[in-house]
Design a protein that fits this description.
Helix content is 41%, strand content 17%. By secondary structure, it is α/β, with parallel strands linked by helices. The chain has 2 domains: 1-104 and 269-362, Isopropylmalate Dehydrogenase, CATH 3.40.718.10; 119-261, Isopropylmalate Dehydrogenase (3-Layer(aba) Sandwich).
């Protein structure tokens, strides 16, 4: 009998509703682990974020950053509070530092409509929405993080950075993702989103996209400017599969995606590099509902399922992939049977009741 493999997970509850959704998420993970077997997750809870900054003067300690880097995966609920800022006026964001520290270049943000989840789109084809916004997370406009300048209280400068090595690995990731999705029934389509009609940096971005596309002849390609893409994600989002975009543009697109699938409580995220993986819901910390049992934990659960799948594939451990699918299926079945009804959509279920319902389907 093969001994079960132990994985260390660095867990950051962060701020606002983060503490509530991470608590129930760990319980869900423990349940699927117990049901499937063959692996064990060891969780270490680590403080970081805005509340930690208020208390200690640092957003994350060097020790906790080191522990995150040594873990097999990072599970993060949300960081930042609107009224807590660095001296330069920006929000507390140690998770952004993790992206560069651990070279998490591929932000995978699935946008999928689940049964009986109300969406703002009335077209019946909205039920078929299932695409991924792929976000380049190490450069673009975010390369200027902490480096921008304000001159004489008169003008401000930030610098967009796009490099060939970062683009090549990012686009390759996107085409390989489209190949995986195609095997499972996906469209086999990658859409490049940019503003190449105006900016040389984005023309360079598209040039490299075309070069890498030639290496994946089994995948179709498409192109849209960012403004048009926002329009099309409202008019015909069911036509898309994988969208690749620079950091800032993909940040906007992923929130738009969350809106058209029903809400940010349905929007999971994985931020992946060649050696590290961070998993978190794409939504914020929602301090206005903190402690009220109103947060929708589904995006947190789906992010955890992405973590299980990534670990299972990375380490060739089939039970972890089975556990990921079990959790995803429990959520889909719960919605399909109209048993999961989060308060986010006007339903009667708070965080704890949604969790109990997911438990029933595991």
């Amino acid at each position: 009998m093969t001994a079960e493999r132990d994985f260390k997970v660095a867990v950051f509850p962060g701020d606002g509703i983060g503490v509530e959704i991470i608590d129930v998420c760990l319980k869900v993970l423990e349940k699927v682990e117990k049901k499937v077997g063959g692996f064990h997750l060891s969780f270490e809870i680590l403080p970081a974020g805005a509340a930690h900054y208020l208390e200690t003067g640092v957003d994350i300690t060097d020790e906790n950053m080191r522990k995150a880097g040594e873990a097999d995966a990072i599970l993060l609920a949300g960081m930042g509070l609107p009224d807590v800022r660095y001296p330069d006026g920006t929000e507390i964001t140690p998770h952004l530092t993790m992206r560069t520290e651990f070279d998490l270049y591929a932000g995978v943000r699935p946008c999928k409509v689940y049964p009986n989840v109300p969406t703002p789109l009335r077209d019946p084809r909205a039920a078929d929405i299932d695409f991924v916004v792929l976000r380049e997370c190490t450069e673009g406009l975010f390369a200027s993080l902490g480096k921008g300048e304000v001159i004489d209280d008169r003008e401000a400068h930030e610098t967009l950075v796009i490099t060939r090595p970062a683009c090549e690995r990012f686009f390759d990731f996107g085409f390989k993702l489209a190949q995986k999705r195609k095997v499972r029934g996906g469209k086999g389509l990658v859409t490049c989103v940019d503003k190449s009609n105006v900016f040389r940096a984005y023309a360079f971005f598209r040039k490299i996209f075309d070069e890498r596309a030639a290496l994946f002849p089994d995948i179709n390609v498409n192109y849209n400017f960012i403004d048009a893409q926002c329009l099309y994600l409202v008019r015909n989002p069911w036509d898309y599969d994988v969208l690749v975009a620079e950091n800032m543009f993909a940040d906007v697109l992923s929130d738009l995606g969350g809106g058209i699938i029903g809400g940010m409580g349905m929007a999971p995220c994985a931020e992946l590099g060649d050696e590290h993986g961070l998993f978190q819901p794409a939504h914020g910390t929602a301090p206005e509902i903190e402690g009220q049992d109103k947060a929708n934990p589904i995006a947190m659960f789906l992010s955890a399922a992405m973590m299980l799948d990534w670990l299972g594939e990375r380490h060739s451990i089939a039970p972890m992939k089975i556990a990921a699918k079990m959790l995803e299926t429990a959520i889909e079945t719960g919605f399909a049977q109209n048993k999961i009804q989060p308060a986010e959509f006007g339903g009667p279920q708070g965080t704890l009741e949604v969790t109990r319902t997911v438990f029933d389907f595991i």
